[in-house]
Amino acid sequence: MRFNNQKNHRTAVSSSRILSLPRGHRAKDSGLPVAAYRERATQGQMQRSALGGSEDWHEPCGRGPTRFIVNAAGSEFVHPVSVREVRERIAQLPEQFTRDLEVLQFSTMTRKRRTFPCYGMQWGSAVYLYPIEKDFVEVYGSPPNPQQIIEARMFGGQWKQDGKRWKLEWTPAAIKDFYLNNVLIHEIGHLNDPRNTRPRDRERFANWFAIEYGYRPTR
Question: Residue 48 belongs to what domain range?
């Protein structure tokens, strides 16, 4: 999804998760799964796009416990969950689902990345969590579809129309719940899906995984 020229005014342009490889990597060369994004609200036609802005790509090393890396959230943004909260949530999952999780990184929302914001991403053995606006209000240039309304309602988010814009408003507790029991679990679901290769199939599995191991056990 992309911004128009107005600050924090997004127009969603994609109907499915965007899959791509970081610069210099090809699936046939690295043997690693492509990056899987947990996008913010999505609509319209599917596009392929590289992740906006540079990122720290962590090659699998196959050893040691999960490493936690915390980067500054960025101007006007905040990390809605802490390392302690993520560590505790991961510990609640069956061990076989997290044994391949080598890196959990809290990434920075850069100016360039704002043109294609996402909540989280999985690449190889790493999971990345991205910041949210400090006021916990996301502003979009197009209305949400029914699935987006349902998902927000499941975790306490509220869609509101503001003239020609739409706002997705969260409370601190709601966005924490959404990140810990949806975004994080969704990305770990990608980590545990070696079978599917088509984007739609990968997303279907990750969505199921997030409901089964994130939403249902915590209601």
Answer: 2-218
